[in-house]
Write a structure and sequence with these properties.
Layout lengths: L1 E5 L6 H12 L2 E4 H9 L3 H25 L5 E4 L10 H5 L4 E7 L2 H8 L15 H19 L4 E4 L5 H12 L1
Parallel strand pairs: 1-3, 1-4, 2-3, 4-5
Length: about 170
């Protein structure tokens, strides 16, 4: 089975994914890391050198490759992955469970503001209010994709451990 974690950047997909995979004794794959290994470039450098369209096609190709694996996998997606090339259809295919880690814009902003310099999409934003507005607009645009997940878990005010426990309960 492939358990796919999706949600906005800063929602904890990778951190929670590692812990979930450990508990379930599944392999963990971070899609961005998978892409970086294939290309020998960081996601940031792929965007810069080849553009978003190239990246999104590559992302879809890598996603298809991962979904052909027969192993049990916890897969962490990039925040935009569900929104392109019919990826949600693949994510919700047979032998797969998708989990949307849902947070309010303010909760996401609290997590992201202190590390925004490392996030090319938001490093130009000056204030926390600007970031909250930016996140709210993006969430509005992506909500229809995120809401197609098999399960939606609101993780505001939950610890990593509590979130992992909640996911395990949803799965089993």
């Amino acid at each position: 089975m492939i358990i796919t974690l999706l949600g906005y950047m800063g929602s904890g997909k990778s951190t929670i994914g590692v812990d979930l995979a450990t508990i379930l004794e599944y392999e963990f794959i971070d899609l961005d890391n998978f892409i970086e290994e294939k290309e020998n470039l960081s996601v940031k450098d792929i965007f810069k050198a080849k553009g978003e369209i190239y990246f999104r096609r590559l992302e879809n190709t890598c996603l298809k490759e991962i979904y052909t694996l027969q192993n049990n996998v916890v897969l962490s997606l990039g925040g935009g992955t569900p929104c392109f090339y019919g990826n949600m259809e693949l994510i919700n295919s047979e032998n797969s469970k998708s989990i949307y880690l849902k947070l309010l814009p303010k909760s996401l902003s609290d997590r992201l503001f202190k590390e925004k310099e490392n996030r090319p999409l938001i490093n130009h934003l000056k204030t926390e209010d600007d970031l909250i507005e930016f996140i709210a607009i993006h969430l509005f645009e992506r909500q229809s994709f995120y809401n197609q997940a098999s399960s939606i878990i609101s993780t505001d005010n939950l610890t990593i451990k509590e979130t992992v426990e909640k996911i395990v309960k949803v799965l089993y």
